[in-house]
Amino acid sequence: MQLVLESLAFALRKLLKLTFVALVTVLVLCLVAIGIAVLAFVVLRALLTGRRPQVGATFTRFKQAAGPFQQGAWSAGAGRRPASADVVDVEATEVPSVRIEGR
Question: How would you write the pLDDT of the chain (103 residues) with one tens digit per residue?
């Protein structure tokens, strides 16, 4: 009886491993197919419109937008301007609040 159970457990382990290998293979093949489809779309679009793909421009825009948030930008005194020698005196006035009806 022990031999039958061990054989069954061995067969189930092999079947499970084979199933996982098959699923991973299908996943990889799907990702490759999607990549090929996207590449074909980009090439056909470039051929039909006569324009080169602007892949680098997208990453350049991301890099420019991330400029203020890059490492070191938040260090002490990074955003401060040097103190101005001119002193400006401002007269403060109170602004009356306006009540909006319906709120």
Answer: 888 889 999 999 999 999 999 999 999 999 999 999 999 998 899 899 988 877 767 778 888 888 777 766 555 555 555 566 777 788 888 888 877 776 5
Residue 11: C-alpha distances to residues 2, 3, 7, 23, 98 (Å): 14, 12, 6, 18, 81
Contact 39, 33 (CB under 8 A): no
CB 19 within 8 A of CB 13: no
CA distances from 13 to 21, 22, 36 (A): 12, 14, 35
Q: Give the separation between CA 19 and CA 25, rounded to whole angstroms.
A: 10
Calpha distance 9→3 (Å, rounded): 10
Q: In whole angstroms, give the CA distance from residue 26 to residue 30.
A: 6
How far from chain centre, in Å, is Cα 54?
A: 18
Q: DSSP secondary-structure letter at 89?
A: -
